[in-house]
Design brief:
315 residues, alpha+beta, Deoxyribonuclease I, Chain A, six-stranded mixed sheet, 14 strands, 28% strand, globular
Amino acid sequence: MPKPPFGLAVLILLLAVACGPAASGRGEEFRLLTWNVESNRPGSRQDSDARVIASQLVAMLKQPATRAEIVALSEVAPQDVHAYRQAVSIGLGRDTDFATSASGGYRDADSLLVVVDTERFQIRDVTELHRYAGIVANFTVDDQNSPEHGTMRARSPLAVKLQDRKSEETFWVVVVHLARGEEDLRVDQARMLRKWAADQEAPLVAAGDFNFDWDFHTQRGNQGFDAMVEGDVWTWLVPEPLVDSNWAGLRDNPQQDRYPDSILDFVFVANGATAWQGESSVVVRPNDFPDDDCTSDHRPIIATLRPAGSGSSSR
């Protein structure tokens, strides 16, 4: 078969490069790290030290396996927001931007926080999902004698719209910390997230502490989990392998976990993000469990997401 003229061969090569994965207009893979850092709540028996958490964030983000362009944290005390943002910047060696929630401030300790690498992502919009389609996901403190009267007493999901600077695609990251002690509220929060996601067009990623108590042996979660996955709107990126993500020591024996072989922390995808290649894993570090007065009682989750049509990672 005769070879094409040299000029035509160069043109064919240039067209192949222009149409290949690197210039497809789709994003390269990115990582998201989500972690309940266990804030220092007034009057709480358990807490963490923000200086220790910040140093652990720096160390994780400096490691290739746990480096992430998006960091989603829950149980962030408002006074620690900038320390955690700075830790992400130091760990990545990049400038960062952030968004934090106003709700979840009950007792001044329970905010949600998203920090992004500004070389990769731009924050385009931020909203808190207090209610949607008639489903209430938060309440105010009703006691007029309480100093927190009128304050949102739970944590509304924090939705942050990001634009990928490489592909220009936009998607939402929703950081959550669903109710722990109030099952009915947790179920409503999950129902609201499902309804909200079904009405969106953009790809969605939800990450955080869902308190779904998914048991490794029964392969079931609680009613909140059932409400979240009903109708196949959200897809769980199941960690491989499954690893316990929370330590809750017995009162009379802190060295024994009350809820062994269960997971509270999740990454879900919806809409166009279900077509992305995605995977997650629980980050296990030496001596992380049982936790102590300086460390978190949760393990981080790292998720790798490859938008459909993206080429191999340059990492």
